[in-house]
Amino acid sequence: MRGEICVGTASFLAFVSLLLLIFVHVSQINTSTVPRSISLVKVNVSSYGNALHAATFDPIDGLYTNNSSASLESNAGLRQFYLFGLYSHCAYVNDSAGTCTNHSIQNQFQPYSALTSDMLLNYTDLTNFILSGTPFANSDSLGHSSRAAYWMLLLGTICAALALLTGIPKNNLTFFISTGFAIIGSIFILIGASIWTAMIKKAQSVNGLSIGTTTNPVPVGIEVTIGPALFMIWAAFASLFASIIPYMVSCCTYRG
Ligand SMILES: *[C@@H]1O[C@H](CO)[C@@H](O)[C@H](O)[C@H]1NC(C)=O
Ligand SMILES: *[C@@H]1O[C@H](CO)[C@@H](O)[C@H](O)[C@H]1NC(C)=O
Ligand SMILES: *[C@@H]1O[C@H](CO)[C@@H](O)[C@H](O)[C@H]1NC(C)=O
Ligand SMILES: *[C@@H]1O[C@H](CO)[C@@H](O)[C@H](O)[C@H]1NC(C)=O
Ligand SMILES: *[C@@H]1O[C@H](CO)[C@@H](O)[C@H](O)[C@H]1NC(C)=O
Ligand SMILES: *[C@@H]1O[C@H](CO)[C@@H](O)[C@H](O)[C@H]1NC(C)=O
Ligand SMILES: *[C@@H]1O[C@H](CO)[C@@H](O)[C@H](O)[C@H]1NC(C)=O
């Protein structure tokens, strides 16, 4: 009976981990309620127009679009905020209406490219003048890191699923294999979570920037915040990591 409880606990923890990771994978796949509410990063640019106006004294016309279905990455106008997932990002004109890029496993986290490719070209040039050279604008570096993080998370998800499956037959050998998958999966998820945490930290460097003159600095009006999916990845790591001990105990002590 004690053995059953031990295996049950391990399976439950591996299941929770897998479920959390599946939710992370659907983040920002489209604008339906569940994918929309899960994101790794949120970039709110709603104050950028006012900041440009305050810094340049020019009227800032046509920077934003209100057309929620206008396609992304085609210089059709900036949206109010952008949410990023593993396979695509979505941009919203208000809390519920927005549009997403096509999903692709080639997708990279490049918030600066996402913003500037939506602006009219004259604003893209102005933004490049202001922000290029900042860590936020280093799309190559963020893009490469996000590729690595993606493969770590995918492998971690597969390991969590395999740990769960191999933990079902009540047998010391399969519990041993589950323990192995739980250990390897935890390592993959830990690396993926760490890379994402570092990338978001880097992107958040834009939050404190000011534009305008030294006598009249204006906050840039771009705000990067952590989305719930990052916490879900860390929770998935914690859960799979916690399953290692009960799997290990089952493997060594189970008398079927
Ligand atoms: C989002 O994707 C799900 C699953 O593919 C689908 O059922 C849903 O209709 C989609 N929603 C929108 C708004 O496209
Ligand atoms: C974006 O930032 C503005 C100004 O700080 C705030 O009023 C607005 O609620 C934010 N929008 C979202 C979706 O967070
Ligand atoms: C950028 O172009 C748009 C459309 O041509 C125009 O309305 C806007 O005033 C221009 N803005 C700047 C800062 O040049
Ligand atoms: C978009 O909507 C806001 C408020 O609803 C309005 O102030 C703004 O003029 C609109 N912009 C365009 C380009 O229609
Ligand atoms: C919004 O954008 C879509 C896609 O580009 C276009 O078909 C539609 O006519 C636009 N709507 C308005 C009101 O401009
Ligand atoms: C969001 O924008 C869409 C399209 O512009 C509009 O139909 C919808 O009513 C808006 N929703 C809210 C909550 O403002
Ligand atoms: C996105 O997918 C649609 C339909 O599958 C396709 O027509 C469109 O060209 C794609 N867009 C991009 C930017 O790849």
Automatic annotation (TrEMBL):
GO cellular component labels: cell cortex of cell tip; plasma membrane
Biological process per Gene Ontology, one example term: fungal-type cell wall organization
Signal peptide: 1-28
Keywords for the protein's UniProt record, in alphabetical order: Membrane, Signal, Transmembrane, Transmembrane helix
Coiled coil feature spans: none
TM helices/strands, residue ranges: 148-168, 175-199, 229-249
The UniProt record lists the keyword Transmembrane: yes
Pfam families on file: SUR7
Protein name in UniProt: Actin cortical patch SUR7/pH-response regulator pali
Source species of the chain: Mycena maculata
